[in-house]
Amino acid sequence: MFNKFKALFRSEDLLEEAFSITVRMLEFDLEMYQASRHTLRELDSADLPFDIKKTDRKINKYEREVRRQVLTHLSIAGTADLVPGLVLVSIVVDVERIGDYTKNMYDLATNHERRLKGGAFENDIRELERHVEETFPKTIAVLRDQDKELARTVMHQEDTMGKKSEAIVAGLMQQRDKDIPMASAIALALYARYLKRINAHLTNIASAIVNPFPRISFREKLKKS
User: Fold this and answer.
1) Given Cys at both, which of 76, 89, 199, 215 links 211, Cβ 3.0 to 4.6 Å?
2) C-alpha span between 136 and 132 (Å, rounded)
3) Rounded distance between C-alpha atoms, residue 123 and residue 25, angstroms
4) Which residues of 185-219 are buried (b: 16+ CB within 10 A; e: fewer)?
5) What angle do CA 170, 175, 177 make, to 5 degrees?
6) CA–CA separation, 204 vs 223, rounded Å?
7) pLDDT tens track for 36-74
8) What pTM was estimated for this model as a whole?
9) How many angstroms separate the CA atoms of 95 and 25, rounded?
10) Domains in the chain and their CATH numbers?
11) For the stretch 100-120, what's the b/e string if a residue is b when 16 or more beta carbons lie within 10 angstroms of its beta carbon?
C-alpha cells in the first residue's frame, strides 16, 4: 500500500495538491503549538504574534478542501485509488485535531493570569514539551518525504511520553506538590493531557506511512521470522 500511496500522490495533480495542503496544515499546527506554548509557559500575558483562532479556521477550511479533492479524484478514478484516498483523509483528521489542541493550549493561557509554572513537575513537563517540539518537524518530514524509518522513530516513543503525561496528572491529583495553586494544578493537568494528545496524533500520522489502512494509529505489526 505504501508504494501505491507514494506513487499516487506523485502522479495525480488533484491528489498532489491535496497532499501539499495536508503538509501545509501540519506546518501551521507547528506554528500554533510554538506560539501557544510560549504564551502559556513564558509570558504573563496571552499575547500572540498572530490570530490563532483565524489560523485554526484556515486549517478547518483546508481539511474540507482535502476531502473535496480526494472525493473528486475517487469519483473519476474509481476504486483503484480508494485506499490511498482514505489514508489521506485519515491523516487530515489527525492534523485538524492537533490544531484544536494547540488552540486549547492558548485558551489555558488566556484563563491563567501568569505564566504556567510546573513546580515539582517542571522537569517532566519540559521533557514532554521538548519531545513534541522535536516530533513535529520529524512528522512533517515523514509526511513530505514518505520516510518509513523516520516514521518508526516517531512511533517508537509514544508509549513513554504517554506514561509520563499520565504520571504528571496522577501526581497533581495526589497533591505531591502542595505549593502549586489549585488553578495552576488544573491547568498543568490539562496541559499534560494536551501534550499527550498532540503527540498521539503526530504518531497516528506517522503510522499512516508505515501501516496498512486498517492498522493506522496502531503499532506496526512485525512480520514473524
Assistant:
1) 215
2) 6
3) 30
4) bebbbbbbbbbbbbbbbbbbbbbbbbbeeeebeee
5) 110
6) 20
7) 999 999 999 888 888 888 999 999 999 999 998 888 877
8) 0.89
9) 7
10) 2-213 (1.20.58.220)
11) bbbbbbbbbbeebeeebebbe
Half-sphere exposure of 216 toward its Cβ, with a 13 Å CA cutoff? 23
Tens digit of pLDDT for each residue in 66-124?
998 888 877 877 777 778 888 889 999 999 999 999 999 999 999 998 999 999 999 99
Which residue type, as a one-letter code, is found at position 68? R
Q: Rounded to an integer, what distance in angstroms lies between the CA atom of residue 120 and that of residue 123?
A: 8
Rounded to whole angstroms, the Cα distance separating 34 from 132 reads 10
CA angle 154, 211, 213 (to 5 degrees): 130
Instruction: Supply 133's cell numbers.
Output: 517540539
Q: Report the largest interatomic distance among the alpha carbons of the chain, rounded to a whole angstrom.
A: 62
pLDDT of residue 216: 81
Residue 213 · residue 87 · CB < 8 Å: yes
Which segments of 43-181 does DSSP mark as H helices, in order? 52-77, 82-111, 122-145, 148-156, 158-173
pLDDT level of residue 25 (50, 70, 90 thresholds):
very high
Q: Which residues of 127-152 are buried (b: 16+ CB within 10 A; e: fewer)?
A: ebbebbeebbebbbebbeebbeebbe
The answer to whether residues 142 and 154 touch, using CB atoms and an 8 Å cutoff, is yes
Residue that is written with C-alpha cell 494528545 in the block: 197
Beta carbons within 8 Å of 10's beta carbon, 6+ residues apart: 16
Query: What does the block give as the cell for 102?
Result: 494547540
Confidence of residue 3 (pLDDT cuts 50, 70, 90): low
